[in-house]
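<goal> How does this chain fold?
<sample>
Here is the protein in question

***
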Amino acid sequence: MSNNAKTREPLFHVVKRTKTNFPFWKSALIRVLAIVLGLIVCGIITFIFTKLNPIDVYKAMLNGAFGFDKVKNFAATSDKSYLTIFITKNRNLWSFLQNSAILLCISLAVTPAFKMKFWNIGAEGQVLVGGLATASCMILYGDKLPPIALFPLMIVCSLAASAIWGVIPAIFKAFWNTNETLFTLMLNYVALQLVSYFCYIWSNPKGSGKIGVINQATEAGYLPTLGDNPIISKYLFNILVVIGITIFMYVYLKSSKHGYELSVVGESENTAKYIGVNVKKVIIRTMILSGAICGIAGFLLVSGTDHTVATDTAAGRGFTAIMVSWLAKFNPFAMILTSFLLVFLEKGAGEISTQFGLNKAFSEIITGIILFFIIGSEFFINYKIMFRGKEEK
């Protein structure tokens, strides 16, 4: 072939964007467009397969998450304002906020590890172990200790159990470079079987395989309620705790020495060692923190809302939290929005299944399509397509 032959360029190629040439408003616009496109595609598929009006389906999703119809019914028989009733009488709203808070808490737990590029897939097991420790204290010491001693014991045991569950794979990773993804994933199954075993031991009635509501008569170990409203008081404590954790985690990651060190380890372990960072110490310390925050989530679930423990206490949130953390790019405040979105899709999907008699799989298809568009939008945020003959600006 002649050296003078002209090299044929491809029609297009992909170029990674830089933060300087792609402002925040453009990335936000791409995400909004992705959601709109996802809703349009879901509407088309819904009409083709079910002949339902997509607008009615989306209204059902909003009602499932926020309970607008129920608020209208209350407002029709009350002299209070719609907004007051929406906040004080709307169980759907507070359940939505509480579920979002728990998901956010677990997402915050896995974020330091992910930012360090330690792939902690074990949040599900860490939450379960923390919840099991809380339930154990409630069962064994609920009628023996006063609340002033019982609650500190429950908190310490939950945090310690989950921290230990998190630090085990960290130690193996730090000293023997084991695969943390497989290690943490396998510990989920160990935690699941531990909970199953104790559910059998403490089953009520015996042989049922379920513990049932713990200390139902005495309410020993139940988190205190805040205020007189029975709807708000059940969920408010959990929400306030998670708000506090969110603020702490933002400051920890952005402004603390520990947050800086784990970021450096995530970028390059060799660089971290060169500037004097003890990489093993950072790995172990970060996973202790990650596990402990999962323990707080387990404590809130058992002591605050469920008042029991079961194999589905974590309800898959440990895996959903991975998506929340990555979509928010490890920003604790951005995780609030992504947690809201995923819980909204979950509750909305459940509502359309109930209201329209659709198979649950169909509602999950709608959720999956919307998430596909949202996740796919990240490609256009991080990369751009350059066509032949056009220079990169």
